[in-house]
Specification:
This protein is an alpha+beta fold. Helices cover 50% and strands 18% of the residues. The strands form three sheets. Strands 5-4-6-7-8 form a five-stranded antiparallel β-sheet. Strands 1-2-3 form a three-stranded antiparallel β-sheet.
Length: 327
């Protein structure tokens, strides 16, 4: 490699490191702006400069209460990293947006617009700049991983309480139905007809007898008990279908795949399928790693490590997501 090729290589490394740094700033912003969809965040920040993204990260951190002064596992402090990014960005501009003339040994002559003279620049300094930019990118990636873990911890905490509260609420609802002497009627209708018909208006509801019609202005809901699918008809004739399968025990099926599974249930509410597994590989699957968006753009999406859901789950009748091509 001749001297000019060596110079071009180092300038290219600086440009690539800066692009990588820019992408990790976007990823930090995606974490800060959750639950906004990633694509929406990209639209909001894609045309901002690197320095503008850096400034936005700092402002959002103050707004949402994220400390940038707590050291990362590596010891780097996010506020210091962001300050360093600002300093390096100026050096990167000087390195990339310049005209280079002769290269002699380890030095090159560099010209800048609106400056009459040339300045001497060391090729080793250019390499050091690329290394510093890469290190800042690594630090930002580490910050993303910390933010993702915090989000996951909060989500799991909320999810655990949410599941318990929903379970308690189901019993409370059943208690209210019993209190209003409706629960027994529902049980009888299920036993005799396999379905329930309701007339509803606002908060009022009543169970319809087999041949009984709803009154004027009442909505009608027919719930089929074998799959708990409700067909709801408005007084104007509009029809909406909604279902809730309830939790179905699939522990035996799960243990055929993974004997370490202790308990497994599945539920479909509308178009959403929920799976709860205790024990085994699926229960201990790691939270997906932060995306390397620059690598994905350059080389295509990789298969990210994350939750592995076995094919037999997608094959369960009535629980397969539409994207898998099953009804």
């Amino acid at each position: 490699m001749n001297e000019h090729d060596e110079l071009s290589s180092r300038i290219g490394r600086i440009a690539l490191a800066q692009a990588r740094l820019d992408e990790w700033l976007v990823q930090v912003l995606i974490c800060q702006l959750k639950p906004l969809p990633e694509t929406r965040v990209q639209l909001l920040v894609s045309d901002r400069s690197l320095d503008a993204k850096r400034s936005l990260v700092k402002k959002l951190a103050g707004e949402v209460g994220i400390s940038l002064d707590s050291p990362l596992p590596s010891g780097a402090v996010p506020s210091d990293v962001l300050q360093r990014v600002g300093q390096l960005n100026g050096a990167r501009d000087r390195a990339v947006h310049s005209y280079y003339d002769t290269v002699v040994g380890e030095n090159a002559r560099r010209f800048r617009s609106r400056r009459p003279g040339a300045e001497k620049v060391s090729l080793d300094d250019l390499s050091a700049l690329a290394d510093d930019l890469m290190l800042c990118g690594d630090n930002l990636r580490e910050l993303v991983e910390v933010l993702e873990r915090d989000t996951q911890d909060q989500s799991e905490f909320g999810s655990h309480w949410g599941e318990v509260i929903r379970s308690v609420h189901e019993v409370i609802v059943a208690g209210h139905l019993h209190e209003r002497r409706i629960l027994g009627v529902i049980a009888e209708e299920i036993e005799s007809n396999g379905s329930i018909r309701l007339a509803l208006r606002g908060a009022r509801r009543r169970v319809l007898a087999r041949d009984e019609n709803a009154g004027a202005g009442e909505w009608v809901a027919e719930i089929v008990a074998n799959n708990w699918l409700a067909t709801i008809t408005s007084p104007d004739g509009e029809v909406v279908r909604f279902g809730d399968s309830g939790w179905r025990d699939i522990t035996g099926l799960a243990q055929d795949e993974d004997p370490e599974v202790e308990y497994a249930v599945i539920r479909r509410v509308g178009d959403n399928v929920q799976l709860s597994v205790e024990g085994g590989e699926m229960a201990s699957a790691p939270w997906p790693q932060a995306q390397d968006r620059l690598a994905e753009r350059a080389f295509g999406s990789a298969v990210a490590p994350g939750l592995k859901v076995s094919d037999w789950v997608f094959g369960l009748e009535g629980f397969a997501p539409a994207s898998r091509g099953r009804g």
